[in-house]
Amino acid sequence: MPWGLLATACVLGATGAWAGSRSVSALHERRVQLEREAAESEARVAELQALREAMARRLRVLEQQHQTAREEALSAAAACAAPPAEPPPAQGRAEPRRTTKGKKAHRR
Fold first, then answer.
1. Chain center to CA of 62
2. Residue ranges of region Disordered (predicted)?
């Protein structure tokens, strides 16, 4: 009987050691997987930050272009709404008056 008990204890010990090593191995694999996912996540965050900065720069450029176009449109509208400038005075002699065509009018 003591040999059977010893054999059972050895089998249980070996099984426990095997299960423990599997557990440690699983924990190690999980740690490696989490480290890899963390590195990928950090890379994605850096990529998104670069994209955000590029979009912010593009937005500033578009806002400046919009402001410039708006100012140009307002100045063009103001120029159209302003009363027309008077034509410059004619130089030289004035045009002669045209006489009526046809029969001569009687003078009184």
1. 10
2. 70-108
Predicted pLDDT at 66: 97
Count the residues in the chain.
Answer: 108
> In the numeric block, which tokens belong to residue 85?
């400038």
Q: What is the DSSP letter of 1?
A: -
- Mean pLDDT over the full length of the chain: 83
What is the distance between the alpha carbons of residues 72 and 27, in angstroms, rounded to a whole number?
A: 67
Cα first-last separation, the chain? 165
Nearest residue to 26 via CA among 38, 15, 18, 36: 18
Between 60 and 104, the higher pLDDT residue: 60
Element housing 59 (H / E): helix 2-81
pTM here is: 0.48
Rounded Cα–Cα distance for residues 68 and 65 (Å): 5
How far is Cα 20 from Cα 26, in angstroms, rounded to an integer? 10
Looking up tokens 């806002």, which residue turns up? 63
